[in-house]
Amino acid sequence: xxxxxxxxxxxxxxxxxxxxxxxxxxxxxxxxxxxxxxxxxxxxxxxxxxxxxxxxxxxxxxxxxxxxxxxxxxxxxxxxxxx
Length: 83
Prior knowledge:
Elements (H helix, E strand, L loop, with lengths): L2 H13 L8 H11 L8 H8 L3 H13 L1 H13 L3
């Protein structure tokens, strides 16, 4: 198993259970786009790395950043040292 597959398993096991059910797909998108990509360019370009349609990528980034409770989840995980 490679490191990317192992990282996805860790995210699914440790973080995903603490995210509201209706936000799980958006949370996973955020993790894949901004954490698991090889390097960070910009919000939209990283989103386009994992989503083929550029308009869909931009709208997902917008929804992710507009969702305050989901953003707080990211902050809580990083501040508490959950890894």
